[in-house]
């Protein structure tokens, strides 16, 4: 396929996704589903460029705006045409040859822009040096533009960690995430899994933190690997693995994964329990629960029972005061996973975190009722905002008189995982740990069953 056609597809799919109203990965899946004539190499090229544009969308828009203003064009066209943004990304980020790129998009840009504009000259004048002084003078705006992050998010991070560390965090969040797997001890040992993967041509190294983790040296197609089909491992970020370890689940326990999703942590908990005891996975999405049931079979797990949070509330309440450990991995803004889900940038709005916090508070209150006296409750997210993390935990402690906080670092230390933290919470920052960004608070229930615990 000619470059003009490929760039045309990228422009089209980016134009569909750019308002952030739907997840970027869903947009491109639907786009490809409707265009089955696209080959695998073409799809890979389009997808790579599309997600690259999403990662850098603020920066390339700023650079393109500079080029328009440098050419004496005011006001700058709003919105900027997708074809010109594709070209700006290709030239500035992907480092494609300038003339080849201009030739590929020139015709489509001429029809997308007001008549008389010299598209070729504008694209040739794209600046690659410093951003304008007006942006550089504001630390928050400079970082936000350079790394295409919401200004409100960068402002909180700068206030919390300073400009230098925020810059490092923002830079890492714009890179490809490392790949790690969790070995399933119900099927094999870490050594056996590593040897089996090596025999299949997949080189791995030991994980940095989690004891059952292996780091993959390259991307792989899972279904093509016998060890994966046989349930020897699951793709799972090391940070996610640490969340399960905070429950210190052991054989024979009654454990609840209250927001199970696809079930990665559910399967990890089953392994920690040596497939003995009772493990309940709850979610609102029936499709995810069905997918989990298939993963359970592959993993050789028999203790998992799934419940729908929409239609099986009576069964869920039947667990009140009975669980030894409950994990509430709450839905969140997901900013800690931007390396894997850059499309979250397009959909983030300043009021999103406030709306999510209300849901998180309700979920934590509801599932705290399942914990028995002496039992453990873990609240976690994959975001890096106080409103969804520390503030939720502190509010819960203020209202739930029957619960107290346990230092997360001490729990992990008992398992041979030493994290440098001065906080009672677990906070994983990708530029420090190589994991995704995660937060967790660990509580224990200390009151007698039947007492009113919320004020």
Detailed description of the structure:
The protein is an alpha/beta fold and 455 residues long. The protein has 4 domains: 3-129, N-utilizing Substance Protein B Homolog, Chain A (Orthogonal Bundle); 135-173; 179-235, Alpha-Beta Plaits (2-Layer Sandwich); 240-445, Rossmann fold (3-Layer(aba) Sandwich), CATH 3.40.50.150. The chain contains 22 helices and 12 strands. The strands form 2 sheets. Strands 5, 6, 7, 8, 9, 10, 11 and 12 form an 8-stranded mixed sheet that branches. The protein is globular, with a radius of gyration of 24 Å. It starts with a helix and ends in a 10-residue tail after the last strand.
The CATH topology name of the largest domain reads Rossmann fold
Mass-distribution shape? globular
Distance between the termini: 65 Å
Low-confidence stretches: none
**Beta content:** 5-15%
